[in-house]
Amino acid sequence: MKAVKLLAIIFALICAFSAMLFVLSSKSKTSSSEETVTENAVFSLSSSEYTQAVTAAGEGGKIFLPLGPEGCYYTADLKNNIGFYQLTSEGFVKAPGEVKTASVSLSASGQSIPVKVKYINIGGSEYGVGVFTSDMSSAVKYYGYAFVKLVKMPESYGKKYLLLADYTKEDFFRADKVYDDIFEYDLKAASVSLRLSQNTRLIDSNATYKQSWDNMTDEFLASMGAAKLFMSSRYYTEEEFGRRTDIMEYSGNYRPAIVAKDIIGTWFVNDADGMHYLKKDKDGFVCVTAVTKDGKKSEKKGSSFAGDFFEDYLRSGNVLLNKSTGEAVNLLTGDKATFSGADFRDADIFSVSPDGKKAVIAYCGQANSNGVPVQKIVCACSDGSAETKVYSEPLLFSESSSFVWVDSSSVMSARPAEETGENIGSVIYTFKSAQ
After folding, report:
1. CA 385 from chain center: how many Å?
2. What are phi and psi of 320, to 5 degrees?
3. Is the pLDDT of residue 404 over 80?
4. What residues have CB less than 8 Å from 346, skipping those under 6 apart?
5. Cα 298 to Cα 373: distance, rounded to the nearest angstrom
6. Of 408, 348, 424, 393, which is closest to residue 51 (Cα–Cα)?
7. 51-67 CB burial, b ≥16 within 10 A, e <16
8. Measured between alpha carbons, how far is 241 from 244 in angstroms, rounded to an integer?
9. Distances (CA, A) of 32 to 24, 139, 341, 344, 392
C-alpha cells in the first residue's frame, strides 16, 4: 500500500511538472518593453508565431555552420560524421566533389591528439573539419574534446594550410569559435607542426597548456590583410581571456613582437588605412587606427564610446550596438543606424546583416512565474525597408549555437523541433518587406 501511495505521489508530481513546462505566464525578469504573455496559455511549438515565420534549412537535427567559401557549410557531430553542403534555391544540397580524410596528430600539453579531418576541394583550395572525443582514444589525457578546422593559410603566412584547434566542447555548434591553438599543416607531406614557440607556455587551472597562448578566429583570419599576426591573452589572467588581447607577429621567436597591446575584446582589422582596434580611455573606450611610417608607429583616435564595452554594448563584425540607445556604429566607416522594437538593455546577442540594415537582437531564456524559460528575438530593420518583428516564446533558438546570415535578408539559427527541446536543427528567418 505504501508503494502504491508513493507511486501516486510521484505520478502527481510528474503531471504537475509537465503542466508547468507547457504553461506560460509573464516573465519574471521585467523591463520597460517586455510583452506580457497571456496567463494560462498553452504553448505549442508547431503553432507558435515564430514557427510560422521560419523555414527549415535542411534535415531535422542538422546544424549548418559556415565552412569558409561563401554559400558553403558543414555539419558535424561528436562521432565525427561530417557533411559538406551548398545552399541553393532548392535548399541545402551536398557539395560536389570527393570528400577525403586526413589522419593528423595534434601536439598539446605533451599529449598526441589523433583527429581524422574530413575535407573537400572548393575553388581550388581544401576546406575541412574534424572532431576528437575521449571515446575515440583512451590514451589521450586531459583533452576530452577537440575540434579542428582546416583552412588555407593567408598569403602572408605561406602556401600551406592551417589546422585551427578548439578545445571547448560547449562551443561545438558556434560559428564564432575562438581557436586555442594554431598548427601548420603540409597537405602533401601530411605533416603537422607548430611555428609559435611553446617554451614558456604556462599551465591553466585544468592542468593543460594555457589556452590564451595563441588564438585565432575566422573573423581575424579574414581581417589580417598582408600582415602575419595572431591574437594572445598570455600576459593576462584566465578571467581576462578574450577581454584583454595582444596582437602579435606570427613567428618562431621566443617572444613574438607585440604590434597592438592590451586591446579590448578581439575586434581587429588590418587594411590600407592601418590597423584598427579598440582601446580603453578615461570615459570608456575609443576606436584606434595605428599607422607605421618610416619605422615609427602612431595611433589616431576615431569614434569614442562611453560606458563599458562588455556591459553596455554588443558587437557583430565591424558594427557595435549601444544597448541603451539602439544606435549601431560601423567601427571602420563611422556609419550609423538605429534599431528599435524593444528595450535592448537586457539583450545577450546582436547579429547584423552584411549590408548593416537588418539585425537580430536575442535574449537568452528567463524563467516566467511558472519556471518556463522564455526567450525573445527582435528582428529589426533600421531603414524601414522590412518589418520589425518581436517574438517571445520558449525554444526560439539554441543558446549554444550562432546566428548566421545567408544573405542580407535571411538569417539562419538553430532551434529545437520538439517541445522536449530535442532534435535541434537549423532554420532560416527571412525579413518581409514593409507594406
Report:
1. 27
2. -115, 125
3. yes
4. 29, 31, 363
5. 50
6. 393
7. bebbeebbeeebbbbbb
8. 6
9. 19, 55, 12, 10, 15
Burial 110-128, CB ≥16 within 10 A → b, else e: ebebebbbbbbebeeebbb
Which of 358, 331, 328 lies closest to 344, judged by CA? 328
Residue at 43: amino acid letter: F
Residues 6+ apart with CB under 8 A from 318: 267, 269, 330, 331, 332, 333
Closest CA to 174 of 13, 362, 400: 400
Give the separation between CA 161 and CA 397, rounded to whole angstroms.
Answer: 34
Cα-Cα end-to-end distance for the chain: 66
Range with lowest mean pLDDT among 25-29, 106-110, 321-325, 340-344: 25-29
Q: b vs e for 163-186, b when ≥16 Cβ sit within 10 Å of the residue's Cβ?
A: bbbbbeeebbbbbbbbbbbbbbbe
Burial of residue 421, with CB atoms counted within 10 A of its CB: 0-12 exposed, 13-18 middle, 19 or more buried: middle
Residues 6+ apart with CB under 8 A from 394: 24, 43, 365, 372, 373, 374, 375
pLDDT of residue 23 exceeding 60, the answer is no
Amino acid at position 50, single letter: Y
How much is the pLDDT for 41?
61
CA dist 406 → 58, 60, 71, 255 (Å): 14, 18, 7, 40
Q: Which amino acid is at 98?
A: E
Question: Are the CB atoms for 403 and 360 separated by under 8 Å?
Answer: yes
Would you state the pLDDT for residue 18?
A: 39
CA angle 192, 195, 221 (to 5 degrees): 90
User: Using one digit for the tens of pLDDT, what is the confidence trace for 235-275?
Assistant: 999 999 999 999 999 999 999 999 999 999 999 999 999 99
CA 237 to chain centroid:
22
From 397, 362, 394, 381, select the one nearest 430 (Cα to Cα): 381
Q: Which helix (H) or strand (E) holds 11?
A: helix 2-22
- Structural contact between residues 324 and 313, judged by C-beta atoms closer than 8 angstroms: no
Contact 228, 157 (CB under 8 A): yes
CA atoms of 407 and 172, how far apart (whole Å): 23
Residue 116, all three cell numbers: 581524422
